[in-house]
Batch of 2 targets.
Target 1
Amino acid sequence: MTRRSPFRYFKTSPEIIRLAVMLYVRFPLSLRNVEDLLHERRIDVSHEAIRYWWHRFGPMFASEIRKRRVDGMRSSRWRWHLDEMFVKINGERHYLWRAVDHKGKILESFLTRARDKKAALKFLRKAMRKHGRPQVIVTDKLRSYGAALREIGAAHRQETGRWVNNRVENSHLPFRRREMAMLRFRQMRSLQKFAAVHASISNLFNSERSLTSRSNFKLNRAAALAEWRGLCAE
């Protein structure tokens, strides 16, 4: 049975919708910034239309990216880097837990109100249920990690030390820039949704520019763009 196109009720072409969603999620741009950039290309859409497209198609694109890369993500069991970053929702502090593999791919993002053993345990179980157990788990010296790892019998896998967790610390930066452009978040659900979509799109376009030659980087970038343009195609 042929799958029905998710764009079938939209007058705007799928190429424009994909471009608008990519610009908004991937780069630190506001809705009105994306509207202006599209206007430069003689594409007349409102920022509210872009907002609707992001809410409608962002999770759909992210889900398809994850399905296409499921084998690669399941093989990321050598070394994980875990860290939590604080985010504010209506002035209240929350914590976004993130797991990153040795290549810098974001495996899991999980939002909680607290930063205790219960939250760390829930985050670890969710990540391991999807991706299996890694050989090494690199964390900072937050005691919640040690308590949670002892609970699940993985304390011997933990590794801590100065600068050893820079991989995940650096992965926070694109999300921080994106958060500032969005003037922070107002609901936990919207933050969790955006974090999941942002992680998938970041993984798709993460070409490890500093670790590859210019020619390989251009090939990887072209392949990522080609994959993006084929998402949810008829």
Target 2
Amino acid sequence: MFIQLVINGINYKVDIDPNMRLIDLLRDKLGLVGTKEGCGEGECGACTVIMDGESVNSCMVMAFQADGSNITTIEGLEENGELHPIQKAYMEEGSVQCGFCIPGMIMSTKALLDKHPNPNREEIREGISGNLCRCTGYNKAINAAERAIEILKEGAKNEA
């Protein structure tokens, strides 16, 4: 079965097994291994990607369901070899320890900020609530999201 989709700005036509999950397509067929599989049940958020503007657990999406979709993975955030401001903010705030959950946490933060560029702490907490982190915890991730908002605002001012 063939599907067509855009991943990180690149058009793909991929032959998939009808039982393949999106995470398996990304990791095993396309080599986009930044998306991690934690629980495989949609509970931990490590596999979060942005699909058509929404954060989704890629372990819970069948690959055929992504036909015609636009997907962004953690690899798609960098531009010209530069980390995305959200990635920079997570590093600056010490929000990265083991790194396993961070790609999903960053993607959830990105989806939130794309929809709501200036959330308060409670809205950030809610926006990343589907992501589990056992090493760093959530305060540093919330701080990172707040720092990312500042960086993004500074970038917008510099472009104006």
